[in-house]
Amino acid sequence: MLAMFGSIGMAMIILACALPAYNSWWPIFVVLFYLICPLPTRIAKLPHNADDSLRAAHAMFATIGIVMSSFALPIVLARAEVIQWGACLLTLAGNVGAYGTMLAFFFGFESSESGMW
């Protein structure tokens, strides 16, 4: 199921770029946000001597900022008339699919003994 939803999300983003009606590859830049989204959490889980709750809060704040940026980028591009609104909506739907897949993976497969959250 995770692979299916992730594939549907990526297919929507590729369609937002490749359909002849839209013909702009700017929406593909949201994939960079997908790649850097798990990094703050992974960095915060590294062993440190600092307060764990503070590291968790900073990691959550950075992750939320990255996720919100991936939703804001297509809206800003559409308002600036760089891409069309249809491509924006397809990209936003692809974001929901991709982040839903990531969220399901982290809640489904991460160990609850880690003590991070």
From TrEMBL:
TM helices/strands, residue ranges: 12-36, 56-77, 89-109
Location, primary (coarse class): membrane
Subcellular location as annotated: Membrane
The keyword Membrane is annotated on this UniProt entry: yes
Xref: Pfam families: Vps55
Keyword match Heme: no
Keywords: Membrane, Transmembrane, Transmembrane helix
UniProt xrefs under InterPro entries: Vps55/LEPROT
Name of the protein this chain belongs to: Leptin receptor overlapping transcript-like 1
Mode of membrane association: Multi-pass membrane protein
Top-level taxonomic group: Eukaryota
Any single Gene Ontology cellular-component annotation: membrane
Family: Belongs to the OB-RGRP/VPS55 family.
Source species: Anopheles minimus
A biological process from GO: late endosome to vacuole transport via multivesicular body sorting pathway
